[in-house]
Amino acid sequence: MAGRKVFNKFDAERCLAAVRRSGAPLGAWARAHGIDGRSLNLWRANLARRGQRRARPTPAQVIELVPVASRTAVAGAPFIIRVAGAELEVGADFDDESLGRLVRLLKSC
User: Do residue 107 and residue 73 come from a single domain?
Assistant: First the structure.
């Protein structure tokens, strides 16, 4: 027999406090006291999750990229940079400084 389900938050907190005081594993304590161990374990997980702070989303950051006169042109075909599913294609005349800014931007994401 699985035992009785945990009724609510207060019932779960009372049972979990008793488990901690006993020092026994949750499953063993639940069997000994006629409590459904799966139900108590789910309450334990839910209460732990409620106690965690949710991470605040970081605000979006806009970085303006302004083209500048090319200082050095590399002969050859355009370059394609692929990072985590994003694709960026730059021409052979793309300057080193702007490429460095783009790479730093991608690293910050």
Answer: yes
